[in-house]
Design a protein that fits this description.
With 77 residues, the protein is mainly α. The protein has one domain. It is built from five helices and two strands; from the N terminus they run ααββααα. It has a two-stranded antiparallel ribbon with strand order 1-2. The longest helix has 12 residues. The chain is globular, with a radius of gyration of 11 Å. The model has no long low-confidence stretch (mean pLDDT 89).
Length: 77
């Protein structure tokens, strides 16, 4: 997942204003309590951040990837 795809999903799933607020304010417990923006700036894969954010916000899998998106492949290990 590219960062632009990440932001498109943030806006689609959470809405533009609320999504941007989450990115700045929501601390992600599974990512050392970083915010979304801090995690992105720290080089964490956007797909990982997206899944952690959605888990924390209890977004079901059926809504997680938006209406026209498929889950992107996992990063190579």
């Amino acid at each position: 997942m590219k960062e632009r795809e990440f932001w498109a999903l943030v806006e689609e799933v959470f809405g533009r204003v609320y999504g941007r607020s989450l990115a700045q304010d929501q601390r992600l417990a599974r990512l050392d309590s970083m915010t979304v923006q801090e995690a992105l700036d720290g080089g964490i894969e956007p797909r990982v951040i997206w899944n952690v954010l959605c888990d924390q916000m209890e977004v079901p899998d059926s809504q997680r990837w938006g209406k026209d998106h498929n889950a992107p492949p996992l990063p190579a290990a």
